[in-house]
Amino acid sequence: MAQKPKQPDVGNPTIVREREGGLAVKEQPRVERPPRFKVMLYNDDYTPMEFVVSLLERVFTKGPAEATQLMLQIHRGGMAVAGVYVLEIAETKVTSVHRMAEERGYPLRAGAEPE
Residue 27 in 3-state DSSP? Predict the structure, then answer.
């Protein structure tokens, strides 16, 4: 009596499956990219522009020209995206901004929102 060929288990992607020619292949599950978050900096009337430029260079590793452009965008538009990161990094950047501003007595605010 002839045996039925094995049907692959399509429910579990980590099962080793046999292919023609006797080759066993382990399929990897699809990994989705983690959600990304925009770190926003908000304008206020008290934080010096030079401090914001310095902060953008130190915390967000922006070059002097890019930091100045972002600072002007924050100043003129009320807010700007300083960077886009996974949640944990975005939260760390926001905390760093708040800590640095508070150490110097500035009310600069930052926040993270989904991209």
Answer: coil
